Amino acid sequence: MLDAHTHTPAPDAIISVEPGDFSPIPGLIYSVGIHPWSPPPDAHSEALLRSAATHPQVVAIGECGIDLLRGTLPLEEQEQLTMLHARLAEEVHKPLVLHCVRAYHIIDRLLKKFRPTQPWIIHGFRGNATVARQLLRHPQVWLSFGEHFNPDALAATPPTRRLAETDCSHLPIAAIAAKVNPTSSPLTR
User: Rounded to 5 degrees, what are φ and ψ at 12?
Assistant: First the structure.
């Protein structure tokens, strides 16, 4: 079982790191992005992101996104940074991993405007069934569920568009996957 999102180095897991922290360990796979809680990016961090994006152990771009509670940047800058990641994901043909807190309506708007060809994975999804259905109208959206989630949202999400993740959980991925029951993944080695 693939753990779709964690910050702890582990086999069979996609390890999310910031561009300046990307130092790949042989045999492990990564997503690389600038988190919305991070300090504002500069040209150096953006160059590191671009460089890491093409590394063969990087299977996804992100974690990036919109956080209306804890984001360190104004909303407009969070959106610009998210779109920088989205364009990069399209360039390198890799999925985009999104952090989204109280901003599903903004992600929905960005999806309508950008119309990605690569999957957009909303990690740690805790929205309700209505929000899940709204996002899943976009064929490129996948929802990744961790230890805590809304059961109605899980039921509204087809198993073929679900992922399981540990993120900050102490539960093993097998325990979370047993609850989430994903049947496929856009994340491959």
Answer: 55, 35
CA 45 vs CA 41, 107, 140: distances in Å: 6, 23, 27
pLDDT tens per residue across all 189 residues of the chain: 799 999 999 999 999 999 999 999 999 999 999 999 998 899 999 999 999 999 999 999 999 999 999 988 999 999 999 999 999 999 999 999 999 999 999 999 999 999 999 999 999 999 999 999 999 999 999 999 999 999 999 999 999 999 999 998 999 999 999 999 888 889 864
Residue 141 and residue 135 in contact, taking contact as beta carbons nearer than 8 Å = yes
Neighbours of 39 (CB within 10 A): 11
Contact 165, 185 (CB under 8 A): no
What angle do helix axes 43-53 and 75-92 make, rounded to 10 degrees? 30
